Amino acid sequence: MCRLFGLHAGSRPVRATFWLLDAPDSLSEQSRREPDGAGIGSFDLDGGARVSKRPLAAWEDHAFAREARQLLSTTFLAHVRYASTGAHTMVNTHPFEQDGRLFAHNGAFHGLDRLDARLAELGVAELVQGQTDSERLFALITAESRKAGGNVAEGIVRAVGWVAAELPVLALNIIMTTSTDLWALRYPATHPLYILERDPEAEPAPAAPLDARSHRIHSRSTELSAVRSVLFATEPMNHNPGWRPLSPGELVHVGPDLAVTCAFPFPDQPAHPLTLADLEPSAAASQMS
């Protein structure tokens, strides 16, 4: 199953090294189970999107480690891929960029021919450069956000609502970022997605430095230890008891001031739910924990 990671640190650029490389269950460690590619998305000081990705597992990618230690950003989006749709190529590796936003997806759905027709109808077919269902879903969100005058939340609701009503769906877990905002969705209950609202002032003193101790590592993130942040991940990445699973259908927005708002704009189940038994064996394998 692909792994998602999102981080919002408010207005202060930080490094995400701890979570990407050093946490007990860092994204690099998770990539040992997800072999088909890894990418990191971030934003420069002027708000311009930056994406570094390769069709190579993060744990064996020296560039991933270098960038995880060096990149500064107010928000981060990272993904490790276990492919279900599309070849193991750069163009199919997450995250994707459209209209200055970054996007990654965990899940699967069918009916790509119908979605392609919908994208052509909306005039955004050219946004899709690869073969993945994920990039197509992103293009639909982009199109609907444009129609909504740039309202990204409304774009997500319209796009995911259309897919949930019209196409066979296994899972549509997503994270999308700009330099100032982050959106995350778990839909439906198929795959987990967790949130951690981290406030150093409210945590016991030993937890604040983000120390990670195991038989493998003892590391520390000094930049994140003293600042508030909100994180999303496919699974809890350390032993902080504040991790909680998003409820099925929960759409979360994190604003520039780290205010977290939650909504439940979708039906409990898609109109045409898929199960693992409905997928090809290789695709089904990619969706297992």
Can you tell me about this structure?
The chain has 289 residues and is an alpha+beta fold. It has a single domain (3-286), classed as 4-Layer Sandwich (Glutamine Phosphoribosylpyrophosphate, subunit 1, domain 1). The chain is 24% helix and 26% strand. The protein is built from eight helices and 16 strands. The protein has helices at residues 17-22, 27-30, 62-70, 112-122, 133-147, 152-166, 222-225, 281-286, and strands spanning 3-8, 38-43, 49-54, 75-80, 96-98, 101-109, 168-177, 182-185, 194-198, 212-213, 218-219, 229-233, 244-245, 251-254, 260-263, 272-273. The strands form three sheets. It has a seven-stranded antiparallel beta sheet with strand order 3-2-4-1-12-9-13. Strands 5, 6, 7, 8, 14, 15 and 16 form a seven-stranded mixed beta sheet that branches. Strand 14 (251-254) and strand 15 form a beta hairpin. Helix 4 packs parallel to helix 5 (133-147) and helix 5 packs across helix 6 (152-166). The model is unreliable at 55-60 and 205-221 (pLDDT under 50).
